[in-house]
Amino acid sequence: xxxxxxxxxxxxxxxxxxxxxxxxxxxxxxxxxxxxxxxxxxxxxxxxxxxxxxxxxxxxxxxxxxxxxxxxxxxxxxxxxxxxxxxxxxxxxxxxxxxxxx
Length: 102
Prior knowledge:
It is a single chain. By secondary structure, this protein is mainly β. The chain has a domain at 8-75: SH3 type barrels (Roll), CATH 2.30.30.30. The protein is built from 1 helix and 10 strands; from the N terminus they run E-E-E-E-E-E-E-E-E-E-H. It has one helix at residues 96-99, and strands at 8-11, 20-27, 32-35, 40-45, 55-60, 63-64, 68-72, 77-78, 81-85, 91-95. The strands form 3 sheets. It has a 6-stranded antiparallel sheet, with no helix packed on it. A hairpin with a 4-residue loop joins strand 7 (68-72) and strand 8 (77-78).
């Protein structure tokens, strides 16, 4: 998957298009991600026991990973990620849009 937990991403499609948030959870089986404060849904919960009251829960629903792109806050640009090796041979992630500017 092209994104990791903790990445800052920009939403490309849907009702939250253009918003920026951080990935809090990754669901690998379905290639979905949960982004903080994005795609917030409400669920109405009926009371289960006598004397209990109903609730309205808010939660962040997952969105497909193809609908997000990694966001660079320093240059304020969303870009795909390329992998390169540094001097010590360690793999690092580099923004493709920033490769052409250097």
